[in-house]
Design a protein that fits this description.
Blueprint: E1 7-9, H1 12-20, E2 24-30, E3 36-41, H2 44-55, H3 63-78
Antiparallel strand pairs: 1-3, 2-3
Helix pairs in contact: 1-3
Protein name: DUF5659 domain-containing protein
Pfam families: DUF5659
Domain DUF5659: 6-78
Length: 80
C-alpha cells in the first residue's frame, strides 16, 4: 500500500474516531507486548485533522457510528 494514504496508531479511541468518520481500516497488527497497531487507508494529514478536531472538541460524530466503530475494533482485536 502507498504510504501516502496510510495512517497507523496504537490509540484505541482515536482509532474508533477515525473509523467512525468513514475511513477504512486495512489491518490490525498485534505486537509482542500485546498492543495493537491500527492501520487505516487515510492520508496522515486527514487523520491528523480528525485528531485535531477530536482534541479541540470540534469533532461531531453520530453516536451510532462511534459505537459501531468501537465494536468493529474490538472484533478485529479478538478475532482468532
Amino acid at each position: 500500500m502507498d504510504n501516502d494514504i496510510e495512517y497507523e496508531t496504537k490509540d484505541f479511541f482515536l482509532s474508533a474516531c477515525i473509523l467512525a468518520t468513514g475511513a477504512k481500516i486495512t489491518k490490525v497488527i498485534r505486537q509482542e507486548d500485546k498492543t495493537c497497531v491500527f492501520v487505516f487507508n487515510i492520508t496522515p494529514d486527514s487523520a491528523k485533522e480528525i485528531i485535531r478536531k477530536h482534541w479541540n472538541n470540534e469533532l461531531l460524530l453520530p453516536t451510532r457510528s462511534l459505537i459501531d466503530a468501537i465494536h468493529e475494533l474490538k472484533s478485529r482485536i479478538y478475532e482468532s
